[in-house]
């Protein structure tokens, strides 16, 4: 697969009508990247319905410390990010999701979403850290976060959606500005 070259990618806050497309991309991303970590019965079941319920709830609720951004090209969802400001007293702000559609990978969309989310965090909590969790087996995502200056702070075992037990890496940045500089 070649590298995607963005033509007219727009980044904007997600709105409730984006829930269906976000749920579809989220489910597809998990099926492509988490096979062997998540249970097949979960991935092959009504994953879209489960993700649809999650994203409808998130986008219908106006949570002050939550930002969901989408990257779109025309009518196509290229990617999305969900971040929670000042989520954890020790680790700081939490990047809960970052997914880019396979057809749009390697075109800078993930970096742009990370940078825009970090820029949103700066005025709210400039001195808080930023963190995310990524499955240890997801080597390409881990390399991406390392290129953005993320440090692997710990590896832990956690139960996933659907009940599988996996090893997860916590990647951290000392402040949102550090993430902007690298993205």
Short description:
The chain is of the alpha+beta class and 183 residues long. It has helices spanning 19-33, 40-43, 47-60, 109-124, 139-147, 176-182; strands spanning 9-13, 66-73, 76-88, 92-100, 130-135, 151-159, 165-173. The protein has a 7-stranded mixed β-sheet with strand order 1-2-3-4-5-7-6, with helices on both faces.
Please describe the structure with a list of short key phrases separated by commas or semicolons:
183 residues, alpha+beta, Aminopeptidase, 6 helices, 36% helix
Structural summary, described in words:
The protein has 183 residues and is α+β, with helices and mostly antiparallel strands. It has a single domain (9-182), classed as Aminopeptidase, CATH 3.40.630. The chain has helices spanning 19-33, 40-43, 47-60, 109-124, 139-147, 176-182; strands spanning 9-13, 66-73, 76-88, 92-100, 130-135, 151-159, 165-173. Strands 1-2-3-4-5-7-6 form a seven-stranded mixed beta sheet, with helices on both faces. The longest helix has 16 residues, at 109-124. The protein is globular, with a radius of gyration of 16 Å. Residues 1-5 have low confidence and may be disordered.
